[in-house]
Amino acid sequence: MTDSPTKPSTQEALIAAGLRLFGENGFAATSTRALADAAGTNVASISYHFGSKEGLRTACAETIASRIGGLFAQAGDAPLPSTPEAAMAEIDASIHAFAGMVLASPRADFIAFIMRELSDPGEVADQLFEAVFLPRHARFCALWSVITGAPAEDEEVKLLVFATIGQVLYFRIAQTFVTRRMGWDAIGADEARQIADIVISTLRARAERITP
């Protein structure tokens, strides 16, 4: 006999609803009634748990920060690797983890939320930048510096990291076209691994070209 799945708390259900509906419709177009209905609760529970709809939006951003932070916490808190090989190994692991999370995980509902916030930047976008994006981007730049000797804050290095992140995100944004062209039913763990391998091979080739 298997245990039945644990029912999410009201807070968790509201955050899940917020991530999905704010991502799909935007903050202004999402009513508290729609959020409550999606979470299977009443409208008053939003004020009870989060103070307001804006408070729920902030909680959604904090949840994203926790998910991504948890994925990369061990590497992000560690000293930088001392060798190019170790730095590339960390990049390899990070890209595979990132691809698995945004492409194959059922918890990747936060991508649409982030994209929506970036299209209308404000306090939540600032929160996501400072807590989620900047530390990981800076770490990646520093790793590339270990590999190639290029300054971590060099403009070309920062652009390279943006481009690498963008390559993975493209497969999320265009997954309908990708799966159709590739003949895949969906992008699962195996497909995400293949995508990550391609992205990493491009990085390795670039590193080999520019490393003395």
Please, could you describe this protein's structure?
Mean pLDDT is 90; it is low at 1-5. The protein is built from ten helices and no strands. The protein is 76% helix and 0% strand.
What average pLDDT do the residues reach?
90
What's the gyration radius in Å?
19 Å
**Name given to the CATH architecture:** Orthogonal Bundle
Strand content: under 5%
Structural class: mainly alpha
Percent in helix: over 70%
Question: Which spans of ≥5 residues are poorly predicted at pLDDT below 50?
Answer: 1-5
CATH fold-level name: Tetracycline Repressor, domain 2
Count of separate DSSP helical elements = 10
- Described by the principal axes of the CA atoms, the overall outline is globular
Order of helices and strands: HHHHHHHHHH
Main pleated sheet: none
* Count of folded domains: 1
End-to-end separation: 60 Å
* CATH homology superfamily: Tetracycline Repressor, domain 2
CATH class identity: Mainly Alpha
Q: How many distinct beta strands?
A: 0
Summarize the structure.
The chain has 212 residues and is an all-alpha fold.
